[in-house]
Amino acid sequence: MTHTTQQTVETGAGPARITWHPARKARLVLAVSHGAGGGIEARDLQALARVLPAHGVTVALVEQPWRVAGKKVAPAPKTLDTGWRGLWPALTGPGLPVIAGGRSAGARVACRTAAELGAHAVLALSFPLHPPGRPEKSRAEELLGAGVPTLVVQGGNDPFGRPDEFPDGRYELVEVPYGDHGFAVPKRVPIGQDEAVTVITDAVVKWTGSLG
């Protein structure tokens, strides 16, 4: 079991926090932030922090300034991007390639800033392709514009965009069967909650292994 450490980083949007889950022989850093309605306690983020360090990937769980300040509602996308940009020097501190990642709103931030910040790749968990019930309000351009190798992990029943709604593009997509926006699966389906989370971690381990 590796020792986790916390680091507070001043950003243009206020202090943010990184919880480091270091790998013994790290070759990559995976930096992942939370969505607009939750924090780093999300099941997918915690599972990645638990599993990936054994595969040579240091996981940095990122809390945006609004969460650190105890606010309930996320600010505008521009402010989220400001917080993420301010964190980037700390994320590149270990001197390793950094994968920009996040769930939901955090995935959008990672996609929007990847090219500018020099991210090695993007991990988009539960990418919110559109607001629920509003498929015409597509955010596909953010995803398609990332400009680096991108993996999308999407729940089969995500109201913000099911896997079959995603456009063709240069990214990989892994479906978590029956999963909702938080990758929760209903009780009466052929896949259990632990199995659903394993689909996520297996996909990310395989993908990070292929990045070189």
Notes on the structure:
- The protein has 212 residues and is of the alpha/beta class.
- The chain is 30% helix and 24% strand.
- The chain has helices at residues 43-51, 65-68, 77-91, 105-117, 140-144, 193-210; strands at residues 5-11, 14-21, 28-33, 57-63, 98-103, 121-125, 150-155, 172-176.
- The chain has an 8-stranded mixed beta sheet with strand order 1-2-4-3-5-6-7-8.
- Helix 1 (43-51) links the parallel strand 3 (28-33) and strand 4 (57-63).
- Helix 1 (43-51) packs across helix 6.
- The relative contact order is 0.15.
- The model has no long low-confidence stretch (mean pLDDT 96).
How is this structure best summarized?
The protein is of the alpha/beta class.
Keywords:
8 strands; 8-stranded mixed beta sheet; 30% helix; alpha/beta; 24% strand; 212 residues
- Pick out the low-confidence regions: none
Oligomeric category: single chain
pLDDT averaged residue by residue: 96
Roughly how many Å apart are the termini? 25 Å
Count of helix runs: 6
Order of helices and strands: EEEHEHHEHEHEEH
Task: Give the biggest beta sheet.
Answer: 8 strands, mixed
Q: What structural class do the secondary elements suggest?
A: alpha/beta
Indicate the overall shape. Answer: globular
What are the SSEs and their pairings?
Blueprint: E1 5-11, E2 14-21, E3 28-33, H1 43-51, E4 57-63, H2 65-68, H3 77-91, E5 98-103, H4 105-117, E6 121-125, H5 140-144, E7 150-155, E8 172-176, H6 193-210
Parallel strand pairs: 3-4, 3-5, 5-6, 6-7, 7-8
Antiparallel strand pairs: 1-2, 2-4
Helix pairs in contact: 1-6, 3-4
